[in-house]
TrEMBL record:
GO biological process, one term: proteolysis
SUBUNIT field: HflC and HflK may interact to form a multimeric complex.
Origin species: Roseiarcus fermentans
Ranges in coiled-coil conformation: none
Protein's name according to its UniProt entry: Protein HflK
């Protein structure tokens, strides 16, 4: 098998080579001849001989096939790579960022042309400030100055992760990410504590401090293009310095007692006030009822007097006698007395008191 070339091989037009192009000049040799000449040329530089012969051709052919196989293996092995579910792949070509890949099987140029940085974007990371998980205290990190010129020991932790949307910022924009996050957390916490009073930060302002520090940290890291998401800021402990800790605890206990007493007073007031209001409403209702009854009685007495007066004008004598008898009946009726009428004689009429008999018969029963 031979093919012709004019001045430089099959890649130079207008010659025709093994892809069907016709010769445009005199033949210069076949493939075996070219291999032999290359072998002779290389043999001049090889120690111990000039490199001729059939065995040398076989050796060069083997080397060429070995190199070709190595190139194919290099391409196949280095082109494909796998990204784990918690990772994002950062593709580099000649050291330049070209894009990111999701979890699964992906491709890139093999080394040394291309490379891949796998970033664990879903891993939750923790930075401890002012203390360590083994219980050690770090005063140079924990001691902070409040707005009212008091010192407090603040131990807190920051939960964060790499931003899945911007892992390239995390890889390329900050040199030591964990140290950067920790430094930002400590700086922002000192700033926020400096805006609070010691009483507030020891008692009621803890939740607001956590939220404020998280927001300020995220804003500052976004300005740095750090590719970091701050998930949570947790205050582990906030105490006064050990020299005055007992005094501040007494103050806190007194404040709690004060609040408890206030709550008890409010509870008592909530109980007594409704009862007093109910009693007042009842008294007012009784007074209104008595007023209405008195008014109605007065009106009834007035109407009765007017009726009697009308009858009196018609028959004064009869009316006076009737009024006298009714009055005597009302006055003497309940009295236990016996009145004997002598009818103008000195001898009394025998009279049997029925009341005594009635009473004795009633007692006999």
């Amino acid at each position: 098998m031979s093919w012709n070339n004019q001045g430089g091989g099959p890649w130079r037009p207008p010659g025709r080579g093994p892809w069907g192009q016709g010769p445009s000049g005199p033949p210069t040799g076949d493939l075996e001849e070219i291999i032999r000449r290359v072998q002779e040329a290389l043999g001049k530089f090889a120690p111990g001989g000039s490199g001729g012969g059939g065995s040398g051709g076989f050796s060069l052919r083997t080397v060429l096939f070995g190199v070709l196989a190595a190139v194919l293996v290099w391409l196949a092995w280095g082109t494909f790579y796998t990204v784990q579910p918690n990772e994002v792949g950062i593709n580099l070509v000649l050291g330049r960022y070209t894009g990111k890949t999701a979890a699964g099987l992906n491709t890139n140029w093999p080394w040394p042309i291309g490379s891949v940085i796998k970033v664990p974007v879903w891993d939750q990371l923790i930075e401890e400030v002012g203390y360590r998980s083994n219980g050690a205290d770090v005063p140079e990190e924990s001691q902070m100055l409040t707005g009212d010129k008091n010192i407090v020991d603040v131990h807190f932790r920051v939960n964060w992760q790499i931003d899945p949307a911007k892992p390239e910022d995390y890889v390329f924009n900050i040199l030591r990410p964990r140290e950067t996050v920790k430094a930002v957390a400590e700086s922002i916490m000192r700033e926020v504590v400096g805006l609070k009073t010691i009483d507030g930060i020891l008692t009621t302002d803890r939740a607001s401090v956590e939220a404020d520090v998280q927001k300020r940290m995220q804003d500052l890291l976004n300005e740095y293009h750090a590719g970091v998401l701050v998930k949570q800021v947790q205050l582990q402990s906030v105490d006064a310095p050990s020299q005055v800790l007992s005094a501040y605890r007494d103050v806190t206990a007194a404040q709690q007692d004060q609040q408890r007493q206030v709550n008890e007073a409010e509870t008592y007031a909530n109980k007594v006030v409704p009862e007093a209001e109910g009693g007042a409403s009842r008294i007012l209702a009784e007074a209104n009822a008595y007023r209405e009854q008195t008014i109605l009685d007065a009106r009834g007495q007035t109407q009765r007097y007017n009726l009697i007066h009308e009858q009196y004008k018609k028959a004064p004598g009869v009316t006076r006698e009737r009024m006298y008898l009714e009055t005597m009946e009302r006055v003497l009726g309940p009295m236990d007395k016996t009145i004997v009428d002598t009818n103008g004689t000195t001898t009394p009429v025998p009279y049997i008191s029925l009341d005594a008999l009635t009473k004795s018969s009633g007692g006999a029963k």
